[in-house]
Specification:
This protein has helices at residues 27-39, 51-62, 97-107, 109-118. The chain is mainly alpha-helical. The longest helix has 13 residues, at 27-39. The model has no long low-confidence stretch (mean pLDDT 79).
């Protein structure tokens, strides 16, 4: 989704560089990430808290046809995310994250099957 204001709630204004989860088998992607990582020590970039973000920006400028930002909220970091959901307080579960995750697994056919297979050695019952 495109936003007219990059600071609007939900808008993507670039990567969050305080943490990183990265995995790729694509050689071109690995090359770009390695070049980003190495740029953090370049003398023309300031060191400190923003060195990683500035190195990302510099790498992106040099590879503008291959590197782009997009909103990944459906994939990472929210309760409805497909890849790495994140849970916090909710009206239904309050702070009971364990029961919330249990219900997510129970309601998803594939996840429930995997969980049931993994727990067959334990007599707690099926999801």
């Amino acid at each position: 989704e495109e936003y007219s204001n990059p600071y609007e709630d939900g808008a993507c204004s670039g990567p969050v560089t305080s943490a990183c989860i990265f995995w790729s088998q694509k050689e071109k992607t690995q090359r770009l990430i390695k070049s980003w990582y190495l740029k953090r020590h370049e003398p023309d970039l300031p060191s400190g808290d923003d060195a990683v973000a500035k190195a990302m920006h510099k790498m992106k400028e040099a590879n503008w046809e291959q590197v782009y930002y997009r909103d990944i909220a459906d994939e990472v970091g929210r309760p409805h995310s497909k890849f790495i959901p994140a849970y916090a307080w909710s009206p239904e579960y309050k702070w009971n994250i364990r029961d919330r995750i249990y219900d997510v697994i129970r309601k998803d056919k594939t996840l429930a099957e995997v969980a049931n297979k993994a727990s067959k050695s334990k007599p707690k019952g099926e999801l």
